[in-house]
Design goal:
Length: 724
């Protein structure tokens, strides 16, 4: 049969397979669990596997057994993003896909993984912020492209796929369950401007750089369910961005459109509008259950069904699914249990945590601690001996765990007192033991924060306060501690920590996200100076008053002074955050010097252009030949002026002219550079003004603002003037 002929193109093979199916069989391939078609030798398949930060058991497409009992569990994405290291994003993806292929070869995993989650972390209360690369669209874009390239491993041969990744949840999805508002029925009211410069960029980058799948979200966007919006799916994803792959619904989204949103009068109408909008696969059973009747009723055509399942079959062809026993196929056939949880993979998990952990405060250089000067270390707090908490959600079974207590105890003698649980009440607070331990020990490490009972899928926070009595535990222990107090926060998002920043009894603060299976070892590496922290916070640390002022349901990014609306994220927030996006300290000191950058760029427009007479404040240069002349390099020198080797994360921001309600600053690029003491290295940013300095106007069109752009790296600024 033609679809088995590997000399044919994947498109020809998929078309051959589809034309051999009956209509009833075709409809069966619209759901994520597909039945075998014995007469054609087509095996059953479960499309739903997850690989957010390691191969997961969520979805049923992948599982663990005695043969392969676990897989490497990397830090939750929000912490990996804090590394600002694209090569790390790619390396993790490559390891995860290698382990996935190894599991597939022994029947324990699928080949389609619905990861990564690249929604912008718009609101600090969102329970799923931990799954995302943070609040900045450029960081989200870079993470998406890097991780997907690692998973799919097909940069050199785009038609081939190691595994098929999937960028989700498209689009403007960042509310799960907040004060009665549910993701299933929430209508995200989003301006064209915010859609263009905040919510869409990560998805555009992901799709246009070759991801094999995009997942549409539960919510409505401006009154239309995402999975039924032909403009967003067929128009933008497949049309404008040229998706080479399939579009899948979030699980049971089509069912939700009919039953909960009541958007259509009949189930058949819901089936028809989603397929016609561009949906190819239903995570669920709604399309397989209702599409046959929709075709028979004339609401959708068999040709439209053919198109949907062809898109899915092409991806399976690219994966080699119809090429025979995977163990006999190059280049992945030799992978097996020996390639999962290798020492190298587990070391990468530890290194990823080290690279992401952020040093927020270090008064009087209290860190790193000197192990030889520590006779006893008090290790206190609800997350001090955390294991399961460290891997967050969409998890698998890790190779093993190293808790903070275990990591620290491997270096020095410890005294462990939990003090309280995550949500402990005043009656459950074990202050006496914790205070005695801190008063006796040479130093104290307090490990506090959240877990999946505080922030998770289906669970948004209502405030930014520490859960339970953790705040009391922190204050009381810090008051009596004999030595320095190191506060370690495990969380997917920010808490109000201004009081800890200002507390003279707290020497240092580390944010550790959910640091994965080796989190405790990574923390010990940093606390005892075996590794110099270089992470930068990927979100803004707000105070509690912010969330009291801003409803989670208000999707506006930009501030509105008339209503005292302060705006969202570092790009627009007008208040004073405790720590700004991109903040993070080191055990050494770095200095930046600007070596070279243009001060003026002039754009020559055609004679008679209206901007010569009307005085334009911005130009639409999309697709213009002018953009070639607006590319330039920013040459910097980074120098380690301290006494310890370490990596510096160099962040380049731009403050554009104040036109079109532009951001107060936006990230243009980032580089990671390792420096020995007194060593200097050059860092070069290649800037394209049309791509990097443009802003979205009120209609969502990209414009290049004329006037003064201020480029920032640390405390170095440079003004660049664009003119005609």
């Amino acid at each position: 049969m033609g679809f088995c002929n590997t000399s044919w193109t994947v498109d020809a093979r998929a078309r051959d397979l589809v034309q051999r199916l009956t209509l009833a069989e075709k409809v069966g391939f619209l759901g994520h669990v597909t039945a075998a078609v014995a007469r054609l030798g087509i095996p059953s398949y479960n499309w739903w596997s997850e690989a957010l930060h390691g191969v997961s058991f969520v979805g049923g497409g992948s599982r663990f057994s005695d043969l392969i009992p676990g897989a490497t569990s990397f830090p939750q994405v929000i912490l990996t993003a804090a590394s600002f290291n694209v090569s790390l994003f790619r390396a993790i993806g490559k390891v995860v896909s290698t382990e996935a292929r190894a599991m597939h070869n022994v029947g324990q995993a699928g080949l389609s993984f619905w990861s990564p989650n690249i929604n912008v972390f718009r609101d600090p209360r969102w329970g799923r912020g931990q799954e995302t690369p943070g609040e900045d669209p450029l960081l989200g874009s870079k993470y998406a492209v890097g991780y997907v390239q690692g998973l799919q491993d097909n940069v050199d041969d785009p038609e081939r796929l190691k595994v098929a990744a999937c960028c989700k949840h498209y689009t403007a999805y960042d509310l799960d369950n907040w004060k009665g508002f549910q993701r299933y029925t929430f209508n995200a009211v989003v301006t064209d401007q915010d859609m263009a410069d905040t919510f869409q960029p990560p998805f555009k980058s992901c799709v246009s750089n070759g991801v094999a799948c995009a997942m549409c979200s539960y919510n409505q966007v401006n009154g239309v369910p995402s999975c039924a919006d032909a403009g967003l799916l067929a128009g933008v994803i497949r049309g404008d961005w040229k998706l080479n792959g399939y579009i899948v619904s979030d699980c049971d989204s089509v069912d939700v459109i009919y039953h909960q949103q009541k958007y259509t009068a009949t189930p058949e109408d819901a089936a028809a509008i989603t397929i016609q909008a561009g949906l190819d696969l239903d995570c669920g059973s709604f399309l397989p259950s209702h599409t046959l009747a929709a075709v028979q009723g004339g609401k959708v055509t068999e040709a439209e069904v053919d198109n949907a399942i062809t898109n899915s079959f092409v991806v399976l062809m690219r994966l080699g699914f119809f090429n025979g026993d995977p163990r006999n196929l190059a280049p992945y056939g030799n992978l097996g249990p020996k390639d999962v949880c290798t020492p190298e993979n587990q070391e990468l998990a530890r290194d990823a945590a080290r690279q992401g952990i952020v040093l927020l405060k270090n008064f009087d250089d209290a860190l790193p601690l000197n192990p030889s000067a520590i006779n006893s270390l008090a290790v206190i707090g609800p997350n001090a001996n955390a294991t399961r908490t460290m891997i967050g959600n969409y998890e698998g079974v890790p190779c093993n765990y190293t808790s903070p207590l275990q990591g620290l105890s491997a270096v020095v003698t410890t005294i462990y007192e939990p003090g309280c649980t995550i949500k402990c009440s005043p009656n459950d607070l074990g202050l006496d033991g914790a205070k005695i331990a801190a008063a006796r020990a040479d130093a104290t490490v307090l490990v506090v924060g959240g877990d999946l009972s505080v922030e998770a899928e289906g669970l948004d926070r209502v405030d930014l306060l520490y859960p339970g009595e953790q705040g009391t535990l922190i204050n009381e222990v810090a008051k009596v501690a004999k030595g320095p107090v190191i506060l370690v926060i495990m969380s997917g998002g920010p808490f109000q920590i201004k009081q800890d920043k200002d507390n003279v009894n707290i020497s240092s603060i580390l944010w550790a996200g959910y640091p994965g299976e080796a989190g405790g070892a990574a923390l010990a590496d940093i606390i005892f100076g075996r590794y110099n922290p270089s992470g930068k916070t990927p979100f803004t640390w707000y105070d509690q008053e912010y969330v009291e002022q801003v409803p989670m349901t208000d999707m506006r990014m930009r501030p509105d002074p008339a209503s005292n609306y302060p705006g969202r994220t570092y790009r627009f927030y007008t208040g004073n955050p405790t720590y700004m996006f991109g903040y993070g300290l080191s055990y050494t000191r770095f200095q930046h010097n600007l070596i070279q950058a243009p001060e003026k760029l002039s754009i020559t427009l055609e004679e008679g252009h209206p901007c010569y007479s009307e005085g334009c404040n911005s130009l639409d240069l999309s697709g213009s030949a002018h953009c070639t002349a607006l590319q330039f390099d920013v040459h910097l020198q980074a120098r380690n002026t301290g006494g310890m080797a370490g990596s510096q994360t160099v962040l380049l921001f731009n403050t554009p002219p104040a036109v079109h309600k532009s951001p107060t600053r936006q990230l243009v690029g980032f580089e990671k550079v390792f420096l020995e003491p007194n060593e200097s290295k050059s860092v070069v940013f290649q800037v394209d003004a049309c791509r990097d300095l443009s802003v979205a106007d009120e209609s969502g069109n990209w414009k290049v603002p004329l006037g003064s752009h201020v480029l920032h790296v640390g405390d170095v600024t440079h003004t660049l003037t664009l003119s005609i």
